Amino acid sequence: MKRIPERGFAISVRKVSKTFDNENQVLSDISFEVASGEVLAICGLSGVGKSTLLRIISGLIAPTSGGVRINKSLVTEPSDQMGFVTQDYSRSLFPWLTVGKNVALPFKGHNISKAERNLRVQEALASVGLEGKSGAYPWQLSGGMQQRVAIARALIMKPRLLILDEPFASVDAYVRLELEDLVADLVEKNQVTTIIVTHDIDEAIYLADRVIALSNSPATVTMELAIKLKRPRVQMATRSDPKFLKLRDTLYKGLRG
């Protein structure tokens, strides 16, 4: 894994395109910037290539053309200073490992003592409200609790970039709101640059400092929307704010337009 220099974590996506099998173009000439410490939401309809874009930003796959730079260094592989959370917690967690061992997986290959590892695991689980669950197995937990485990694992190495790919799509509506607030609080406390992909307009506006809207495939950037809502945000109060409603209307029209 590539180590990023110890300074801010600013991201530049420049003219990124992606074509599969030489004929299926998914992304077309996508460019945008992410400031260090910013929370950026990438919003678009299902199937437009949002997850493909995330995999390119994270270095998991290469673009067909264009490139991604972090602090001016070209991304060619995943960084050990990146945390990644997907929507499918049932596949991202190993059912034969305890919660504690799942959370500790990013320590593999790092020279960290057992005592330090255990302390960091307990701190990570406490940060997501799962104190005392280290010895449980994922299949013994609810879906929302399993996703909390995945979030704890993503944060265990104290990353400077957190990537969230539809992280709440597989949980029910009430748990989704709880997890949104959990992530917002953790991101604020850790001052981590964050990119979240979602097709939920309200979620994008609630969590982000800025939202980028993608068109239908091949996806291009059709809108960048600054979210100037005060923090900390509160679910009912923020979502009923006239400014929120106006932003939602603007983003909806941008996605459908």
Structural commentary:
- The protein is an alpha/beta fold and 257 residues long.
- The protein is 35% helix and 24% strand.
- The chain has helices at residues 50-57, 89-92, 99-104, 114-127, 143-155, 173-190, 201-207, 235-239, 242-256, and strands at residues 11-20, 24-34, 39-43, 65-70, 73-74, 82-86, 161-165, 193-198, 210-214, 221-226.
- Strand 7, helix 6 (173-190) and strand 8 form a beta-alpha-beta unit.
- Helix 4 (114-127) crosses helix 5, helix 5 packs parallel to helix 6 and helix 7 packs across helix 9.
- It is globular.
- The model is unreliable at 2-7 (pLDDT under 50).
List descriptors.
single chain, 257 residues, alpha/beta, Rossmann fold, 2 domains, 6-stranded mixed sheet, 4-stranded antiparallel sheet, 9 helices, 10 strands
Blueprint of the fold:
Layout: E1 11-20, E2 24-34, E3 39-43, H1 50-57, E4 65-70, E5 73-74, E6 82-86, H2 89-92, H3 99-104, H4 114-127, H5 143-155, E7 161-165, H6 173-190, E8 193-198, H7 201-207, E9 210-214, E10 221-226, H8 235-239, H9 242-256
Helix pairs in contact: 4-5, 5-6, 7-9
